[in-house]
Inverse folding.
């Protein structure tokens, strides 16, 4: 039986139990999207993926997910995810490509935050503060915190209220600066210290999810302990940032093409099968059992397949 036929059997089995209609499968994947995906993963797609997506390019957004409640990812979602994964790659050495080009945007950001600091009404000079600290990324802002004297501690510092509409404008400048510097320094956040005499310090910092999150692999050393990887191909999604997909760059004890869980909430990753067809076989066998949890709409598929591995 072909992998496509097994997939159709899974969909039919789910529909026989599910009161809500499932989403509709899309037409086959266009060749241009296959080429885009292969450029992003720097590899050829496995034959079983080509066969499956030659049958249908994922599903539409209407109805439930066709894979035991999980959505079948279309090529647009796969490409978006892989592009995000590639953006998370950090260069070995981080340097600002052109400091002179970055300087005007840095000044705009500083001027925005300093504009909220108290001033001498008569002379328009900065007054009653020694330094200001704040952090910002394209999505968020911390502070600004005001230190009245050189020896003011974090416990005694003040915080300034920022107008939300103004903040959105300055965060767009932060986003432009991040994009400008991306080729040499893929920072995630800027941390500023600005002094009332006009001097300032700025530090570009990066989030190190791979070392900060205690990832595990089962079996040990089968899956690389990462948060994102551009060689992890998402195939099925829980629509909450978590996936079941294909691992094209396993760790030393893994096998290329193995099926794994990964995503936003997945710290403990498991090899769910050696390949996708084997995963389909195991799920069809499990779903045929009396009172199988796979046909329970309240059960998360990741929980079931991991329980199957542990058992």
């Amino acid at each position: 039986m072909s992998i496509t036929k097994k997939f159709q059997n899974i969909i039919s089995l789910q529909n026989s139990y599910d009161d809500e209609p499932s989403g509709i499968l899309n037409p086959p994947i266009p060749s241009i999207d296959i080429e885009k995906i292969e450029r992003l993963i720097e590899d050829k797609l496995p034959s079983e993926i080509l066969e499956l997506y030659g049958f249908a390019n994922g599903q539409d957004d209407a109805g439930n997910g066709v894979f035991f409640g999980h959505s079948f990812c279309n090529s647009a979602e796969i490409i978006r995810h892989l592009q995000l994964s590639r953006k998370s790659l950090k260069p070995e050495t981080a340097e600002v490509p052109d400091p002179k080009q970055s300087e005007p945007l840095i000044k705009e950001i500083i001027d925005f935050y300093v504009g909220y600091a108290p001033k001498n009404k008569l002379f328009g000079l900065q007054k009653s503060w020694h330094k200001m600290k704040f952090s910002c990324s394209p999505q968020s802002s911390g502070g600004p915190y005001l230190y009245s004297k050189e020896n003011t501690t974090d416990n005694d510092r003040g915080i300034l209220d920022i107008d939300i509409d103004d903040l959105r404008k300055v965060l767009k400048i932060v986003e432009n600066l991040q994009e400008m510097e991306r080729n040499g320094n893929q920072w995630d956040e800027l941390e500023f210290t600005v002094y009332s005499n006009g001097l300032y310090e700025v530090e570009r910092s990066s989030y190190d999810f791979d070392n900060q999150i205690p990832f595990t692999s089962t079996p040990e050393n089968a899956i690389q302990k990462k948060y994102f990887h551009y060689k992890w191909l998402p195939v099925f999604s829980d629509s909450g940032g978590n996936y079941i997909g294909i691992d094209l760059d396993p760790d030393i004890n893994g096998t290329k093409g193995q099926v794994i869980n990964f995503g936003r909430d997945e710290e403990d990753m498991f090899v769910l099968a050696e390949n996708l067809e084997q995963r389909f076989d195991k799920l069809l066998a499990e779903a045929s059992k009396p009172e199988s949890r796979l046909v329970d709409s309240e059960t998360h598929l990741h929980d079931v397949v991991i329980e199957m591995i542990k058992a």
About this structure: The two ends are 27 Å apart (CA to CA). The chain has a mean pLDDT of 88.
